[in-house]
Amino acid sequence: MPEDPATSSGGCEVIELSFVVNGEPVTLSSDVRVSLAEILRRDLRLTGTHLGCEHGSCGACTVIVDGLAVRSCLMLAAQAQGADVETVEGLARGDELDDLQAAFREHHALQCGFCTSGFLMSLTARLREGPVVSEFQAREALSGNICRCTGYVGLVDAVLSLAADSGKEPLK
Amino acid sequence: MKPAPFRYHLPATLQEALELLAELGDDAKVLAGGQSLLPMLGYRLTAPAHLVDIGGLSELRGWELDEAGLRIRAMARQREVELDPDIGLRFPILHAAIAHVAHAQIRNRGTVCGSVAHADPAAELPATMVALGATMVLERSGGRREVPAADFFQFHFTTAIETGELLTEVRIPSPRSGSTGTFLEISHRKGDFALVGVAATVVADGDRVAAARIVCAGVAPTPFVAVAAEQAVVGRVLDDATLLVAQYCASEGMSPTDDFHAEGAYRRQVAGVLVRRSLDVIRSQQGALSA
Amino acid sequence: MSQVETTATRHVGTSMRRREDHRLLIGAGKFLDDLDFGACYEAAVLRSPYPSARIRSIAVERARQAPGVVAVFTAADLGPILQDLPPKVTHPSLNRQPRYPIAVDAVRYVGEPVAVAVASNRWLAEDALELIEVDYDLRPGVGSTASALAEGAPLVHEASDTNVAVHIVQQSGDPDAALRTAPHVLRDTFVITRGGGHSMEGRAVAARYDRAASQLTVWDATQTPHYVRHMLAALYGMTEDEIRLIAPADIGGGFGPKAQFYGEEALIPWIAMHLGATVKWIEDRWESFISSTMERSQTHRMEIGFDDDGRILVLKDVFEHDQGAYCVGLQVPTITMSTLPGPYKIPNIHSELIACYTNMVPTSSLRGAGRPQAVAATERMVDRIAEHLGLEPSEVRRRNLIQADEFPYAVGLRFRDGSPLTYDSGDYPALLDGALERIDVPAFRTEQAIARREGRFLGLGIGMFVEGSGLGPFEGARVRLTNAGRILVTLAASPQGQGYETVYAQLAADAIGVDIEHVEVRHGDTSTIPFGQGTFASRVTATAGPAVHEACLRLRAELLAAGAVALGVDPDDVTLGGSSVSVAWAPERTVTLQDLAAVSNMGRHGMSVDPRMPVAIEATAYFKPLRAVYTSGIYAAVVDVDVETGMVEVVRSVLGHDCGVVLNPMIVDGQMYGAFAHGIGNALYEEAAYDEDGQPLATSYLDYPLPTAMEVPRPELFHVVSPSPLNSLGVKGAGEGGLIPVPAAIANAVEDALRPFGGRVNRLPLTPARVLAAIQGTTRQ
């Protein structure tokens, strides 16, 4: 019978890895040739992180490692040793969407949804650096991820709505 | 797109890393940021038997910025260098060039030294290093040498790094006073490799150009020094006529090949245009030169 | 802020937020490779590295011995399923050449499957591929239609004496005579190169066979689940009931390539049956570049005859279409043939297709499907008429448009669905006016003149189109009262991001008159609805839409009848609302849908029911359109061309669209924006380049620039609403219109900008190098 896919690749050296994912420490053994994306998806069953190109261009696999948005397809799991990893599964509080996720829904920033988690993670990291207030800034913040469905209009609007909302807040 | 098997090494000290590289020889590749290496492994364009991950070497992190200049160590990430305000102030050309390298998500992992060592002819940082007169520090077990950027890049994806050597540092000398520079690029999309890029630095002496270094990316197997354009501006005021002369002689000696993105003729012509435009940017930055 | 789903009776026409979004936003989407199949083998496919070669031998023994490998298959092991896969759309004169699921004795494109390795995981399967030794006898390849048609060209299929796959001519009027007598005739050649679909999720197939139940279950990230099931049943000699084809709830974009049938879809389920295990194959991006069908490559030689006022008298177009190595279907070029006349009254038309086999990935439908190419020929010539006569391009269009009172309008050709090309409804002058209200042409001309004096080169370009959409043969919907008293709408077609779960709930809630919270929509599983076609050709709204509507009306009648019996009143005396049926004049007398389900759908064991009581409350409807409906639109672009570098910046975009009645404006606008972005890619960036032998040159996103948020401007949208008379909802397709006019309009705009140089841009996409070559009067291929 086939092995469960949540195992290492085989044919390669295996190492022990410990890191933190969405606040939870994890320890597992991994083949050294497996990417962080594959460990998240296969071993940890965090399948919200998607592989769109496996060469660092599409951004679907973007996660946050030690506070920085990175391509999880271009990082060996071994390189995440001791790291703090955040994935799309860590954004919502229970069933309640965070502000960025809610803005995506409100502004129709997703269609097929395959690239969505990468956008969310890129933007989450970017918004921690400071607000995005102009359309140009929004487009620059989006430019490391590819979406084939939306033409980016809803994505730009979603990002800008957060700045607009935070600007409005003091008035209330 | 899964890498072929390899053995993974995570040395704890530079010495250990250098010994590993000496021992493993051509069977090993160095893994730093991995942003060029991992795609090549995935496409199985390369299948080294060993990867030596230098990411654990604290002595290779960060950089030194002092009177003498900037020493960027092997694990300094592009994005860290880009965001450092002091580096931006002292080396605006470096800041401008890094901003053209892919996207923030790549620059968060990719290293300056890694891009230099990868030596993609269409990459921004090799040309920039030549323009800045950088020196590459190559270490091996029991040895160390320094190679000027101009001699470092030898061919497409080929450098002076020999088997067993590690590029541990890029040294950029402090710019002379009155010096300024910029990096301009034409690419299909923002973040793509350059169809043509130009890294230009100019040292002003009063209203005249005392020295210039103009280097093009994407037009030759290695960074192309536009000697004729440099000669055209040295000793001169950067007036429109001088800029035009620089534009039209920039491609002297340049023979870019055709590929499906653009013909060589396109690259020659646009290199000239970007040389003129970069000099225009420089003269607007450096008030004295625009007199 | 956030629009909450309400019980208001009218949902159609509102921008209801999508039900799909929540799971996708929290990372809980159900894309094929996200599904937990438990223990599962993974397959990797060895692909031809050569455009054309005979296979002398394949040695797989070493691969079979490799760690973790359970099996390696080549054509030699697959006898029963080595059958010719029929084209999806064919033609009596097609020079049909066999296409097998895997290469038998020759390879005809780089990427063609040669062997499949199955292992415990993908890493080991890829390791095994490196151990397979194939002895190839190389043959010269054909890398373009021009070389396919050249004298003495190598033959893509040696069994044929020609590379021509099909040659079709359609005519109306007397085009040759009209060309002889027209006061003005212009000719030019326009080339559109290859581009790909590039859904962010690639193709994917998984399968397992349950021997006890004689059931083959196949998961396939496909646009057309029923089509795949038919193909598999025919190939394997099984009945359709023995195969359950599931298109997962979430598919990461389709855009056409996922509506085709591929070798891998034939191989993986067969291998799963053979091994008695679950097997999956996930297309990676490199495979996508070299094996998913592409489109666009055509060369148009167009002649257009017109009078002194710019009225078009005759259009003649002879075009070469690159079919690729095999004919997967003829839908694309046949759609091109009938898209050429567009929104114009053209009395004499000659439309001639020469489709060629080449040694490249087979071509098939891709968002727009043959239409952008036709528009990129005709609309370019309309601008040339304006240039020739010194008229505004918008004025030439105005003089030739079919008027709003001229529908139905018979063009005089046939559409690819076999029906006469008869436009059902539209208001093309309103589209033109809408664009010109937003872009003030005289003001632009002044701005353009001033800019030119400053060395800036601005250009204005327009593209208009008419798009046959909502194609047959039929589409179905099944609506059922569940035991829990909810309404379950089941669609055959599988969405690729279009929000079916939301839109069809809107439609169903309105038609039945229930609270939308009680409506659920599922799709893409052949075990839940026996017949269907799928998602392609902007057809689902216009086919499944009316089907859902009809089924829901029938279900409503059943619910009212059941409620009346339960409440002991006349059917005319009950109303349906929320989740219950009530007596109209005594609203406190009410029965819930759940209670009705208990009686009508479950019943009591062995007990008789009231003879008036409807049982098994469900309704299935199939809508078969009489013929296609015709969406239309316009795109007007202002560009700024850097004449020193050839870089084009699109500074203004107005996109007008008429898809009839709009069910969910937010979703329709989203379709526009997405299609528009793809159009920008085709206009300026995307080219799946090949060398002259057929070797692909762009096999990563470093070489194939998919546009990002920095490249795609925000278009200003407007809608004209001409309801279709051909379906009950008045709807037309909306998925492709935002793309179709974009390459043509941008090319027109660039040429307008370059008019002082007389530059011609006849080859798409308009890369910086091509634009600069146009300025310098040299032609870049």
Number of domains of chain C: 3
Q: What radius of gyration of chain B results from the CA coordinates? A: 19 Å
What's the domain count of chain B?
A: 3
CATH homologous superfamily descriptor of the largest domain in chain B: CO dehydrogenase flavoprotein, C-terminal domain
- Supply the CATH architecture of the largest domain in chain C: 2-Layer Sandwich
Compact summary:
The complex is a heterotrimer of chains A (172), B (291) and C (781). Chain B has 291 residues and is an alpha+beta fold. Helices cover 34% and strands 26% of the residues of chain B.
Q: What does this entry look like structurally?
A:
The complex is a heterotrimer of chains A (172), B (291) and C (781). Chain A is built from five helices and five strands; from the N terminus they run ββαβββαααα. Helix content of chain A is 31%, strand content 16%. Chain A starts with 13 loop residues before the first strand and ends with a helix. Chain A has two domains: 77 residues, Ubiquitin-like (UB roll) (Roll); 73 residues, Orthogonal Bundle (DNA polymerase, domain 1). Chain B has three domains: 47 residues, Uridine Diphospho-n-acetylenolpyruvylglucosamine Reductase, domain 2 (2-Layer Sandwich), CATH 3.30.43; 110 residues, Uridine Diphospho-n-acetylenolpyruvylglucosamine Reductase, domain 3 (2-Layer Sandwich), CATH 3.30.465; 112 residues, CO dehydrogenase flavoprotein, C-terminal domain (Enolase-like, domain 1, 2-Layer Sandwich), CATH 3.30.390.50. Chain B is built from twelve helices and 14 strands. In chain C, strands 3-5-1-12-9-10-11 form a seven-stranded mixed beta sheet. In chain C, strands 7-15-14-13-8-29 form a six-stranded mixed beta sheet, sandwiched between helices. In chain C, strands 18-26-27-28 form a four-stranded mixed beta sheet, sandwiched between helices. In chain C, helix 10 crosses helix 11, helix 10 runs parallel beside helix 18 and helix 17 crosses helix 18. The interface between A and C is large, with 68 and 71 residues.
SSE map:
The complex is a heterotrimer of chains A (172), B (291) and C (781).
Chain A: E1 14-21, E2 24-31, H1 36-43, E3 62-65, E4 68-71, E5 84-86, H2 99-106, H3 116-129, H4 135-142, H5 153-168
Parallel strand pairs in A: 1-5
Antiparallel strand pairs in A: 1-2, 3-4, 3-5
Helix pairs in contact in A: 2-5, 4-5
Chain B: E1 7-9, H1 14-24, E2 28-31, H2 37-42, E3 50-53, E4 63-66, E5 69-73, H3 78-83, H4 85-90, H5 92-99, H6 104-107, H7 112-118, H8 124-131, E6 135-140, E7 143-148, H9 149-152, E8 153-155, E9 158-159, E10 166-173, E11 179-186, E12 196-205, E13 208-217, E14 224-225, H10 227-233, H11 240-249, H12 264-285
Parallel strand pairs in B: 1-3, 2-3
Antiparallel strand pairs in B: 4-5, 5-10, 6-7, 6-10, 8-9, 11-12, 12-13, 13-14
Helix pairs in contact in B: 5-8, 10-11, 11-12
Chain C: H1 21-25, E1 41-47, E2 53-59, H2 61-65, E3 69-74, E4 106-107, E5 113-119, H3 122-129, E6 133-138, H4 145-149, E7 164-172, H5 175-181, E8 184-192, E9 204-210, E10 215-220, H6 225-236, E11 243-246, H7 263-275, E12 279-282, H8 285-291, E13 298-306, E14 312-324, H9 331-339, E15 348-357, H10 371-389, H11 393-400, E16 409-414, E17 420-423, H12 428-438, H13 441-453, E18 457-469, E19 475-481, E20 487-491, H14 500-512, E21 519-523, H15 540-567, E22 574-577, E23 580-583, E24 586-592, H16 593-602, E25 618-623, E26 629-641, E27 648-658, H17 665-685, E28 716-719, H18 742-753, E29 763-764, H19 768-775
Parallel strand pairs in C: 1-12, 8-29, 10-11, 14-15, 20-21, 27-28
Antiparallel strand pairs in C: 1-5, 2-4, 2-6, 3-5, 7-15, 8-13, 9-10, 9-12, 13-14, 16-17, 18-26, 19-20, 19-25, 22-23, 23-24, 26-27
Helix pairs in contact in C: 9-10, 10-11, 10-18, 14-15, 17-18
